[in-house]
Amino acid sequence: MSDVTFTAPRSTRPVAAGRLQVLGFLAALVLGLVLLTLSCGRGCVPPGDVWAALTGAPEANAVFVVTELRLPRAVMGLLAGASFGLGGVAFQIMLRNSLASPDIIGISASAGAAAVFAIVILALDGWLVSLVAVAAGLGVAALIWALSSRRGAAGARLILIGIGVSAMLDSVTAYVLLEAPAWDRAEAMRWLTGSLNGMQLVQALPVAGALLVFGGLLAVTARDLEVLRLGDDTAEALGVRADATRLRVTLAAVGLVAIATAATGPIAFVAFLAGPIAARLLPGSRGLLLAAGLVGAVLVIAGDFVGQFLLPARLPVGVVTGAVGAPFLLYLIVRANRNGGTL
Predict the structure, then answer these.
(1) DSSP 8-state assignment for residue 125
(2) What is the pLDDT of residue 1?
(3) Can you say whether the dihedral through the CA atoms of 169, 84, 225, 3 is positive or negative?
(4) How far apart are CA 94 and CA 170, in angstroms?
(5) Quick one: which of 120, 80, 90, 305 has its CA closest to 210?
(6) Where, by residue number, does the polypeptide cross the bilayer (predicted)?
(7) Which of 70, 106, 225, 244 could lock onto 165 through a cystine, CB 3.0 to 4.6 A?
(8) Which pLDDT belongs to residue 70?
(9) 92 and 98 Cβ atoms separated by less than 8 Å
(10) Could you say which DSSP state residue 3 is in?
(11) Residues 57-66: contacts with CB within 8 Å, 24+ apart?
(12) How far apart (Å, rounded) are the C-alpha atoms in residues 160 and 319?
């Protein structure tokens, strides 16, 4: 993510109108994908029957298919995708680097390792797994931040330390899986790929709560976060407390990513992809948080639909997003080398 530069605006109305058009398009795309997942699958349900099933009409057909099988997947895909998108772009804006996403710097790995430990070793489930994942995410985020802040904070140093911590946590996850019984190992491996299989609406409640609380915290911090992109000295001169803003943003982003990861598994590269895609659709910083959340929802819902119905074999959503995200990561690195380190 490149630093923000400001020029004297010719008119704010065309800019605001363009921003609303992009956000409206993304919102309509999310709604359209949700309707698609509710209507289409192994068999198609007419839109009228979908509406009847959602409204509880007594004569509705395919109630079980729509409300028990497809609706939980769609709701969880929307909530988890928005959480990953918001958490990822918050880190990228704060650190002014497109590589500084939870996927890269170890936050997703910490939540995943903690969730696997809670599921396999502690035999926990539900909100307790989410609690363990959030605690681990916050702890690892604090550790990475402390290690990277010696003799002045540096985004590149934080990313490198995060990659190392992520590799260490992946080793912990592998060890836990190696010691787990065969059934628990199979369940944990399916979870680690990132999947919406077998979702129930009750599982979406912690993710919805996190999106409401931590997303709201990011919303009220959005202005300070934008100013922080100009550098600490400029932010302090404009009355923004840089350290306090970073603390709030880190808390909110880790909470979003950790709880979503505990619910769906680490859906690869969604937090990494959402910010750069949103930045290209919506140049400038205004509205970028909301745009990234919508893009994250699009990626998860579309990736799940593609993996389930448009490929020769049924694949979890994390496999599809990983296949898209890995080449995009290489593209960003190559572009950084060509631009002298600027992403």
Answers:
(1) -
(2) 43
(3) positive
(4) 25
(5) 80
(6) 20-38, 74-95, 104-121, 127-146, 158-178, 198-220, 251-275, 287-306, 313-334
(7) 106
(8) 93
(9) yes
(10) P
(11) 65/41, 66/38
(12) 25
